[in-house]
Amino acid sequence: MKWKKILVATDFSAPAGRALDSARALAAKTGGTIVLLHVVPPPVALYPQETVSIGAFSEAWVREARRELAPLAARARKDGRRVRVEARFGVPWRRIVDVAEELAVDAICIGRSGHSRLERLALGSTAERVVRAAPVPVVVVGSRALKRVARVLAPVDLDEGSAAALRLAERLATGGARLEALFVVPRGMAERGEGALAEFLELHGVDPAVGVVHEESDPAAGILDRAHETRPDLIVVATQARRGLDRLLLGSVAEKVVRHAEAPVLAIPWEAVERAAASLSKDAAPARRRRSRAPAARPRPAGRAGRGPWSGQAHTGRGGPAGRRGGGP
Question: In which domain, by residue range, is 216 found?
Answer without folding.
Answer: 149-231+243-262+273-329
